[in-house]
């Protein structure tokens, strides 16, 4: 596989990864359509590396959002402003639930 072929297949992978079709199939179809022949072991290794590159790109792209979500879960607060915990123990109950269940009295009609 030449550098130019690798670049072309990398571009194909990048453009087709998020389409609702198999990007791996494109890595087979494009060389077939262009008449390129590769050693199957090298083609498989290239396919795995390109898929890992795609995964790494997605992880890096969404790292900030994922980190923010983790912080929100860890520092979550309930409707009363009290910090909630991911390890809520149902046996302890919710000490604020009784306050939320009390009826609201309204004046007038």
Number of strands: 0
Q: Biggest β-sheet, characterized?
A: none
Helical fraction: 55-70%
Distance between the termini: 82 Å
What structural category arises from helix and sheet content?
mainly alpha
Strand content: under 5%
Please state the CA-atom Rg, rounded to the nearest Å: 27 Å
Estimate the global geometry from the Cα principal axes. elongated
Identify low-pLDDT runs.
Answer: none
What's this entry about, in short?
This protein is an all-alpha fold. It contains five helices and no strands. The model has no long low-confidence stretch (mean pLDDT 76).
Keywords:
mainly alpha; 109 residues; 5 helices
Describe it for me?
- The chain has 109 residues and is mostly helical.
- The chain has a domain at 3-64.
- It is built from five helices and no strands.
- Helix 1 (3-16) packs antiparallel against helix 2 and helix 1 (3-16) crosses helix 3 (40-61).
- The chain starts with a helix and ends in an 8-residue tail after the last helix.
- 3% of the residues are buried.
What does the secondary structure layout of this molecule look like, with pairings?
Layout: H1 3-16, H2 23-34, H3 40-61, H4 63-74, H5 97-101
Helix pairs in contact: 1-2, 1-3
